[in-house]
Amino acid sequence: MANNLKQFLDKLDSASELKRISVPVNPHLEITEIADRVCKSNGPALLFEKVDGYEYPLLINAFGSFERMSIALNCNSFDDIAKKIETLLKTSAPATFKEKLKMLFTLKDIASFLPKTVKSAPCKHKVFTDGALLDRLPIQQCWPQDGGPFITLPLVITKDPNSGIQNIGMYRMQKYSNTQTGMHWHYNKDGARHYKKYCEAGKRMPVAVALGGIPSVIYSATAPLPPDIPELVFAGFLEGKSIETIKCETNDLLVPAESDFIIEGYIDPHDERIEGPFGDHTGFYSAADKYPVFNVTCITARENAIYPSTVVGRPPMEDCFMAKATERIFLPVIKMIVPEICDINLPIEGVFHNCILVSIDKNYAGQAQKVIHALWGMGQMSSAKCIVIFDKDVNLKDYSHVLWKLYNNVDPLRDMIITQGPLDTLDHSAPSACYGGKIGIDATRKFKEEGMNRDWPDEIKMSDDIKTFVDKRWKEYGF
Q: Which of 196, 244, 428, 449 pairs as cysteine with 257 (C-beta 3.0–4.6 A)?
């Protein structure tokens, strides 16, 4: 178990999952090119010990493999966490996705994972209120057409002004100056909802940004949790203990005590500025647009702090492995709502909103269409552009098997649902932002009630006795 980023690096080192680079490197494009090559060749995490012009080392690709994600989340496999969630969910059967997760994180056992506030913390070892603030940090410019340097792995902490409930989200931040950044939260994110409430009230919005710290806390900021489930409670669930927090120096927000850096500040109502372009996880640049301006009032740092970063672009990249962890961990919750689902695969190439593959235990006509519409009505799944449904015997990880079934089982006129609806903000192919065409495909075996007027053919399979007989003689054949 890693209680901070330094301990996480020690674990990666022991597992031969970390490479230290001691020669000077430039955060302007050079680090990106190195990290991109290493990530796409399934290479290790990279610790750049000497970043030109900066005192702090930069860590990147720390989560860029299934092995490193398992180390970060203290598990042998993501299915271990999924089974833990599944066991807890079986204690009750509320109706909706939101109700299930609320129930999960209000059980007596989970209450012990509530964050605990402390009076002193490692993240307060150094306090900077003037002089170089953001200029102290080795913030990367990732791609040539980016609007500037971006903080790419921030844990942005905001608070609902009405309920007082805090949220942690991961929203990129373009550095404008030593004391200002953009705050790129999409309209459907909790940070944006909080900001809207502050604007309506005409009040300044306090914001804090944590960098580094406990790996499970970093991951939790990306998890698809409902607005009223604190990310630090989920991180506590992953850690098996409470996450310690401490109050900021210049506002009342509580931040993770083990963070490497805390950037404190505020956003004034309706104060917005052009942010971007940005080389995004789709592999294309997302366009420049207006977003709120974050004003920095203070930065605190732990002793021997490490600046964590990531780079996104054409997959596979580091963020893909974080998203794959989410796919496995939250599968039990999806299956509780749509029980006929057997498995789900969000292909990396589909950047997790363009394509969802699903296998189901099909028992009646129209069941595939029912599942398609159920998923389109479920949280972040509502942004899915393409959902394909297969029978339960299809291995969704075997793309040869998947494509064989897709190409052979589908009649376009009968088995495709073409509609319109919400899409991910980053879908550049849509005619309008966040709205456009969607497709659902039924690639299951068809029943007569579904318009199949012929008998469905049997698949070619060898008999089990012959397979066993050949297995026993395999070496005799000279193989």
A: 244
**Would you write out the chain's pLDDT as a tens digit for each of its 479 residues?**
788 999 999 999 999 999 999 999 999 999 999 999 999 999 999 999 999 999 999 999 999 999 999 999 999 999 999 988 887 766 555 555 556 556 655 555 666 788 999 999 999 999 999 999 999 999 999 999 999 999 999 999 999 999 999 999 999 999 999 999 999 998 878 999 999 999 999 999 999 999 999 999 999 999 988 766 789 999 998 998 999 999 999 999 999 999 999 999 999 999 999 999 999 999 999 999 999 999 999 999 999 999 999 999 999 999 999 999 999 999 998 998 899 999 999 999 998 889 999 999 999 999 999 999 999 998 889 999 999 999 999 999 999 999 999 999 999 999 999 999 999 888 999 999 889 999 999 999 999 999 999 999 999 999 999 999 999 999 999 99
Sequence ranges of the domains in the chain: 5-308, 318-450
Out of 190, 280, 424, 427, pick the active-site residue.
Answer: 280
CATH 3.40.1670.10 fits 318-450, yes or no: yes
Chain Cα centroid distance, residue 443: 28
Among candidate residues 134, 349, 113, 323, the one with its CA nearest the CA of residue 236? 113
Is 280 labeled as catalytic in the residue annotation?
Answer: yes
Q: How far is CA 124 from the centre of its chain?
A: 28
CA gap 240, 235 in Å, rounded: 8
Six-digit token string for 171: 């929203």
Architecture of the domain defined by 5-308: Roll (2.30)
